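So, is this right?
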Amino acid sequence: MLFNSPEFILIFIPIVLLFASLTQKYISKEANIYLIILSSVFFYGFWNISYVPLLVGSVLFNFLIHKKIKDSRVLITGLIINIFVLLFFKYTNFFIDNLSLILDKKFTNYNIALPLAISFFTFQQIAFIVDSYKNKTTKFSIQEYMLFITFFPQLIAGPIVRFHQFIPQLKSNKLNISLENISIGIVIFSIGLFKKVVLADQLGMVSDNVFLHSNQYSLSFFESWGGVLAFTFQIYFDFSGYSDMAIGLGQFFGIKLPLNFNSPYKSKSIIDFWRRWHISLSSFLKEYIYIPLGGNRKGTYIKYLNILVVMIIGGVWHGAGWNFILWGFSHGILLIINHEINRHNLKIFLPTFVKQIITFLIVTINWVLFRSENLLSIKNVYSGMIGQNGFYLDHRLAKFLPFTSSLIVFEGLHIGSFDLRGVFYIVISILIISLFSNTNEIINKKEKSLINLKFDFNIRGTIYLATILFLSILFMFNVPKTEFLYFNF
């Protein structure tokens, strides 16, 4: 069941909200916890019921670890088992395939299916047991913990929620369902839905076509850049769209989920980018891997080694493939270069918008590593981006680019991968990201890691909301539904 599907929006959410409201009014707010847990488990099992025992078992195991956490050996045992389960399901096939290649011997590939959300709920529980060991958690019940992990708005693709960001809210408001919370939640959810179905899915058609053919054909300059830019905007609108919908759904129940994106493509450096992109993952990697490794306390070289290790782990977390390892490694090197520039106080006197453009281009070039399925695809895309394969464009674009026939060859290529639709959505994406406020700014202002949710329901805001909601529903019913990209990670 997808957030961007009619059955979720028109059936699941209304039913859950109706029963939760009745339960809150006529029974107790505490009873709502059980109701939302059952709804969340149903939501998860709707994808594949065979993995429900894994989710429930993981929750119960980590709750029991928490009970015995005073002993460091218990913590280590908990960490090992959590990491082992994640490695088994996510990386067994990757290890087998590479072992077969190295030893030139065929080993059995077990085709182990990846359980939905295992990366997210595993990291969330690793953070929890570490916090418990450090006495950063307060008293709570098994049902509160179960809801903390399984809460369906954030279960599938985050944000990665910390104990102090969730459990205290249950203690104070016990899932406060109100008209105000629902109205604000609808605003945030609608913005996320627009990002997903109107922008990300359309951009995905362009980028998928380019990268699919990059395994077989040489790409021209414009095709390569068009496909990479389309993916650059697709992954942002797709994942930030999911995060907005998750925050909006949480608000329905009076739960404030942490901000996960803060205009990352307006970053002025790579360091700034990682403060703005997938904030909950960046925070996790810093606090639970980088700092325990020593952070910046053991000298410059160890600091840089720690950065490289953390970014490679971040890359591997996204998927079992050398492309993710290369992507993480590349960002690690870029962060080290950025820190070196800062360390030597090498001030670069450039206008802010120039720094933003340079950072954006660096991030875009690195998305090739993330999106490509193999080394051949990476090579073909990069070759096209530097113009090695010529400057071809779809013949239908010729009338929009007069006086360029001496520079650009217009013809109907066998790929047909980058056409007027691609140009349109890339231009629209650039305008939206450059000129419009992000979701947090639209709603109001942030309060550290949580957002202080308010919305000015004036005529202008109402027209804005109605327009994006209308377009979203129109696209939702007329365009094939697609999963969120981070469902695969």
Notes: Residues 33 and 147 are 7 Å apart (CA to CA).
